[in-house]
Amino acid sequence: MQIAVSVNGTEYTRVVEPRLLLIHFIRDELGLTGSHWGCDTSNCGACVVWLDETPVKSCTVLAAMADGRRVRTVEGLANGGRLDPVQQGFAQCHGLQCGFCTPGMMLTGRWLLDRNPDPSDEEIREAISGQVCRCTGYQNIVRAIRWAANAEAASGEAAGAEAAGGEAGGAR
Amino acid sequence: MSQQAYGPLPRKEDARFIRGKGMFVDDIALPGMLHGAILRSPLAHARIVSIDTTAAEAHPAVEAVITGQSLAERGMAWMPTLARDVQAVLATDKVRFQGQEVAFVVARDRYSARDALELIIVDYEPLPPVIDAVAALDPGASVIRDDLPGRDGNKIFDWSAGDKAAADAVFAGADVVVARDMLYPRVHPAPLETCGAVADMDQVSGRLTIWVTSQAPHAHRTLYAMITGLPEHKIRVVSPDIGGGFGNKVPIYPGYLCAIVGSTLTGRPVKWMEDRSENLMSTSFARDYHMHGEIAATRDGTILGLRARVLADHGAFNGAAQPTKFPAGFFHIFTGSYQLRAAYCEVTGVYTNKAPGGVAYSCSFRITEAVYLVERMVDLLARELGMDPAELRMKNLLRPEQFPFTCPTGWVYDSGDYPRALAAAMELAGYAELRREQASRRERGEYMGIGISFFTEGVGAGPRKHMDILGLAMADGADLRIHPTGKAVLSVSCQTQGQGHETTFAQIVAAELGLSPDDVDVVHGDTDRTPFGLGTYGSRSTAVSGAAAAVVARKVRERARIVAAAMMELSPDDLEWADGAWRVRGDPEQAATIAQVAMAAHSGLELPDGVEGHLDAETVYNPPNLTFPFGAYICVTDVDPGTGEVRVRRFIAVDDCGVRINPTIVEGQVHRGLADGVGMALMQAIAFDAEGNCLGGSFMDYLLPTAMECPPWELGVTVTPSPHHPIGAKGIGESATVGSPPAVVNSVLDALAPFGVVHADMPLTPAAVWRAIQGRPLRADLAMP
What we know:
The complex is a heterodimer. By secondary structure, chain A is an alpha+beta fold. Chain A has helices at 22-29, 85-92, 102-115, 121-127, 139-167; strands at 2-7, 10-15, 48-51, 54-57, 70-72. Chain B contains 18 helices and 33 strands. Chains A and B meet through helix 1, helix 2, helix 3, helix 4 and helix 5 of A and helix 1 and helix 16 of B.
């Protein structure tokens, strides 16, 4: 069957087997290997990508179900050359070790902050509770997402201050 | 030595991983690449009557079907294990565990390879399975390894350590003896990336390249040469980014060899990646130690002796990955962190119809089991004596002035200050206040537990005189090249699976040579580009390869001294190393940095007779002893007696791993192991039913801790440098996995003390806790009604 999927803003049209999993479509058909496969049973979340605006476990979504929809993967997190604050947070806070769960964790972190810019540690833990990390014991992942929330709050305040300064015609 | 380069440097590795640009084995796609899949046995024990591959071979996308018979024609149906046993690559005579490899299909895509597996018809004649390790020793038990000549039972070995007569004498004269059976259940390391390989056999050059999930690429190369008959210089093993190892990726697996044969037969690259169930059901498990412990003490709480009897379930093939001389690994370090008069342990290894393995999952070669035993026994003794478990430990811990300390089973602990670490943990925890809180909660009918463990590890295997795997001594090489502009490339044999070697090892070299860590690149994971060494496991990377990195950098520095002297027309004796440069004694402004010396060393500068140009150096580091990290852990739990649910409220961990090169990375390693402890103590076990069906074959059944089960970790530090390691460092990768499970279990049992529960085996699931309270404990290794 033929499907058309927008992945990270690029349109892909491919003929695929109806049974092809979305994770294999992304990795093998499109060569976007940042999303990983870890368990087959929707438990580990190494394969988390966004389908439209929602994180899904792409090992249990058929590629066919993404027809006509938008997919966002780790390769689409950065804005141009600028890293997303969540990506920066993971590097700043040692939020990763082997790096295998990291793309899925970051996509969930981004989703959370888009809905809740100031989450508590408990809310962060709950958001990533459907995903497994075998390296970090989760603490630095929580810190990484918290770091991104703080960075976004600070840059928002800075942008606000800049705008306010501009309106006031302040000398600069 | 300048340590300016040490510190919490962000990791070099992260740049690629946060962008999704890591390169894991399954990310490799070569032109014309085919895909392999393995047909596995559904039965735990059965004779193979026939295998019919006709229909699979007729599948339009299938390029080859390989069976044990076709491997036997190449002399490859069996392979050596790391414990000098043999293991079937593809079964020829019998299948010996559920999930064992029976046939291999090579097809043009992943899905077709799996489809074709369904077309293979295997006729099995079922045999009685041997699942219970105790029953495996029954005279009437069916013999699993009838392939081994002269074998009439399932015992693999008997092994002992310590002084039996001395231990017996101490026990005979003791006021108090406490004895307890306990099980360390079978668990699986379950790295998030499963095992796999891409094999590419070049038919023209006869050269094999294999990208493989390996923690020990050089040892793999030697094994592939031994098994395939290919000359070793024609084999290149590349271990690219590895998605976690934890000991699961030390051995070679049948799938790797099948991929090699598949590529040889088809002339095309062949990829094989196992799925999660295959990983959990067939690759190296850990533990499965049935232990009986005994502890002897005086009435006032002076520990006198320890004895242990262990039945070790090794599965169907003895694939334990450990130094050859030690069939029970380092279990005989079971006297732990205490001064006592005598100790004796004996271990019997048995075959069962389960997957092979035993030594994996950050166990430091079975020190995990040893620490669990002694820390449970000390807690049981405290209960018996009515003493506070912290007080009992403090009373019996080794004193700093006793180091180096030779323990009753012969290990020489290099250094330690144990009371300081335990005091630090108690201080961080607010121990006295916790006990007060516990007392007042108990009055209200709330069940809060406080559990302590203290551990000593011996890591960094190891001295070549005592330690080898399949005859390969556990020394590590390191090469260091200094380019003319003073930039450095370090090549090491070990392989990172997340430990951050690219950062830490650059810091080691930078500190020795006065460079920035940015100026040092670390090459690893490719046998064509690195010197020989035994790999990353047993917390040996910093302890052995890290030492090699420091030693080779010092060699470069000494060579630089001669060149610097020639540059300044002085004698090398006139120079001293200070602040990252060779400086003239008494005139430190007159100096030469490594970068300046490097350019001169590559120039036409006249050098003294016998001094070669350039600064490059190489070394092989043979550790004089293991390093002995230690730590004190305290776990606070709340237990709901109605549901049996355990919540880990707090976890305090004070670790001493000697000098910390990158403290952030060290803490990350500890965090990981603490999560392991919560998982193993409360959730994880691979159980089997009476037919040998694996009941932990997916993440639906084999439960791993998530962010919800893990508390925020509270870490503390003490630093007792190793006296023999070049930079005073000790291994840290496994400390928390080794030390934390008994802290959690001791905590839960402390919570359950009012119910009279003295022991319950891991995992302390809600069902297990509830049953313990009811006085009907669950057995974790076998399915029970």
